[in-house]
Amino acid sequence: MTFALAACGGERSVGSFRGVAINPPLAKPALTLTDFNSQPYDFAAQTRDKVALLFFGYTHCPDVCPLHMANIAAVLRRMPAGDRARVVTVFVTTDPERDTPARLKEWLGNFDPSFVGLTGTKEELARAQEAVGLAKATQEYVGNDSANYFVGHGAQVFAFARDGMAYTIYPFGIRQEDWANDLPLLVADASGADIRRSLAAQATAGQLNAAPEQPPAADANAMVISKAVVAEPATRDEAAAYLTFTNNTTQEDTLVAVAADLAARGEVHETMGDGEMRHMMATPTLVLPANAEVKLAPDGMHIMLSQLRRKLVAGDTVRLYLSLSRAGPVEVRAPVVPYADLEKFLGLGGAVKK
């Protein structure tokens, strides 16, 4: 199952969903893993008649995982106790080597003590990801240190309603206000009938965030991201990343969020004609027109990486995590090159992994 996200316009009515609708809905998978108390955890049985938020990630994740968990926890704290008790957040590790049961329990407890952490063998975790249509998570090592690596994994939260079906997913970039809108709607409906009616009404009104049932095969690589590069910074405070989006589809797409493995923040900036740098918006949003190319290059738009985790030097590789409203989460590897060689290197493509 492939989720290609498409955001439609229009003002939403009261009671409408802000998550991304999936068609057909996804049935709750039958999977049993090991919880952080070293006990078997039957996902379907343990979350029966509950809103089950299922996410695959890892505790060493620099941005995506803690942001999802923090946002969900913040919204749960503001919900009435009865509604909050109807929500179960299940975090399945994609890094079983480092995410021991004890670490899972401690890490998740920092967000909300009700969160459940699950682990298993690599084979069990691969089957669990496959059960919801996710590709198997992959490791990428940094340098020669076998203990220092990142994990590429799905960036969306699956929201299974109380009837055992997931009608909506929540990609990286979703905000607390969106969770605050959708969770009470999911909690209130035990049968799923109101959820289906609401989503159908939104679709009719053109107000639905929707993932097409079967995206045409030609669309699989229709959004091409190339010429990804990071200019070697003079300090460890910030760096600029450049790349090119080529949207070969007939539908507009939007860059809605940016993150990086070696930076705490990623935002889209634009250098104006008089040399003034303008911060485009706090949550980066960049429209990518249909059948068009958008270049992020010097003297124009670029991705500003702030609060670097270490000094970047030529030869390093930065992993950029881009969230697109239609194409979904995309991972791009961008080499770090000296400013003097930037123009030459902008002709080289970064590896794109969707």
Description:
This protein is α+β, with helices and mostly antiparallel strands and 354 residues long. The protein folds into two domains: 6-211, Glutaredoxin (3-Layer(aba) Sandwich); 218-353, Sandwich (Immunoglobulin-like). Helix content is 20%, strand content 37%. It has eight helices and 23 strands. It has helices spanning 43-46, 64-78, 81-84, 101-109, 122-131, 176-188, 193-204, 342-345; strands at 6-7, 20-27, 32-35, 40-42, 51-57, 87-93, 116-119, 138-141, 149-152, 157-160, 165-170, 209-211, 223-231, 238-247, 253-260, 263-271, 277-279, 286-288, 292-296, 301-308, 317-324, 328-337, 351-353. Strands 13, 14, 15, 16, 17, 18, 19, 20, 21, 22 and 23 form an eleven-stranded mixed beta sheet that branches. It has a ten-stranded mixed beta sheet with strand order 1-12-2-11-10-5-6-7-3-4. Strands 8-9 form a two-stranded antiparallel ribbon. Strand 6 (87-93), helix 4 and strand 7 (116-119) form a beta-alpha-beta unit. The longest helix has 15 residues, at 64-78. The chain is globular and about 60 Å long. The relative contact order is 0.16. The model is unreliable at 1-14, 212-220, 274-284 and 348-354 (pLDDT under 50).
